[in-house]
Amino acid sequence: MTLLLWLSSWNNISVLGIFLTVFTILVDFMKRRKNWSRYPPGPVSLPFVGTMPFVNYNNPHLSFEKFRKKFGNIFSLQNCWTNVVVLNGYKTVKEALVNKSEDFADRPYLPIYEHLGYGHKSEGVIIARYGRAWKELRKFSLTTLRNFGMGKKSLEERVSEEAGFLCSAISSEGDRPFNPRILVNNAICNVICNITYGERFDYGDETFKKLLTLFENSLHEEVGFLPQLLNVVPILLRIPGLPQKIFRCQKEYINFVEKLVYMHKKTWNPAYTRDFTDAFLKEMAKGKEAEENGFNKSNLTLVTSDLLVAGSETTSTTLRWALLFMLLYPEIQSKVHKEIDKVIGRNRPPTMADQVNMPYTNAVIHEVQRCGDIVPMGVPHMTYRDTELQGFFIPKGTTIITNLTSVLKDETVWKKPKEFYPEHFLNENGQFVRPEAFLPFSAGRRACLGEQLAKMELFIFFTTLMQKFTFVIPEGQPRPREDSYFAFTNSPHPYQLRAVPR
Fold it and tell me: Is 464 part of any domain?
């Protein structure tokens, strides 16, 4: 009798389990995308997880290249119940971001940033949803960065001054081999700190070291499968303590920026605008309308944090690639030296006015950006409304990934897409040309906020370093690796060099 009761209860549990399984699969099926006609093709979507198991999130652009070969330049993925479309190749990305810029101008909601203070009225500017507040904040940020002379010194003078500090720090290394990563990061980050907070830090300053360490570690926390999963299944973020544990450095970084802003506000004088933070505080003081446009306390922290991201990480990584390529291609370094000696000489500091007379150096810098492929996927977009692209229907609210690797290394555009070849940016007369497919800063309405600053920094820092030093591989060390590792940005593997004074 006991056995019969046990079998009966076991059967009931089995039936209940089967029912729940079938019910869950049905719910999963109903939550997935409708069978829109002309929706882009893609790999088979599995229950619950969609196509996520088929993507290598440690190197997603490599997975995208495989899908592109099978499905074409526009293909779809399914992150659990989130619809994703990946755009590949110059023509496709240009049509979306430039020709149909507003259709693709939105950003997807990213729940993993909630614990950092991101919300309905505080979204920063980089990942803010497309709308009035974003337009006002971006316009304000671009205008302030463009016009802000910061007292007696222009922005170009500040960059040139910091390039001098970097050269002094490198000179102090003497004949010893060293990894340039920390020094380069210090210099580039100091420029944006100067703009944002009106002051620069000594490279040995402990506060500065902490800021850079937290910032760098926070980027690593966004890479991999788990952050992607948490964004599409945000209920998991409700597990007590989980966000704080997984994204510990991100939270510490935001807290650190909040402290910098707080200390800055204590010395704020409304009659004198020292820097970007002061300009933001001045907008906040205008009252309710300004607050509705995003000028509030929370956004002050997030926008200045965005500026540090937009104005430091990609530029410092690009400069480290530039030094690496000079090590690997000494004949190209020699040509840069000759052009600098001819146009500038070895004593006068370079200026942006020199750029037009230095086509080869300019071509080398652009080729570093192209070949280094610093931000291979850009920042995710989202369709602002239903749209069509090359015959495919893409509904409103679809997450869009622009595969910038496929643009910067498009075989239909570049003669030697997988090689470091500065002649990509020179015509038959040796004059500088910029192909339309050069999109390292993305394009359209959501192009990189720090693009103009980055261009200035790259030219002045690179030219100043090449003016003062010859960079060589230390004796007895192997040739550095030319491939990259991915942590939101494509960075060179650690390497050492010697800086020989010229």
Answer: yes
Distances (CA, A) of 405 to 124, 328, 435, 439, 448: 26, 22, 15, 10, 16
Q: Which residues, 6+ apart, have CB-to-CB distance to 172 below 8 Å?
A: none
The tokens describing 17, both together, are: 């389990």
pLDDT of residue 150: 41
Q: How many domains does the chain have?
A: 1
On whether residue 182 sits in a domain, the answer given is yes
| Region of 156 on the Ramachandran plot (φ > 0 left; ψ -120 to 50 alpha; else beta) | alpha
Identify the sign of the CA torsion 46, 243, 396, 387.
negative
- Paired sense of beta strands 399-402 and 82-87, if any: parallel
198 torsion bin: left (phi>0), alpha (psi -120 to 50), beta (else): left
pTM of the model: 0.89
Q: Of the candidates 71, 108, 109, 105, which has an alpha carbon nearest to the alpha carbon of residue 88?
A: 71
448 is in an annotated binding site: yes
CATH (domain of 396):
1.10.630.10
Does residue 136 belong to any structural domain of this protein? yes
Residue 26 lies in a domain: no
> Exposure string (b/e) for 340-350, b if CB count within 10 Å is 16 or more?
beebbeeeeeb
**Token reading at 250:** 């991100």
What parts of the chain have a pLDDT lower than 70?
1-35, 148-153
Token couple for 126: 């980089």
Q: CB–CB of 490/372 below 8 Å?
A: yes
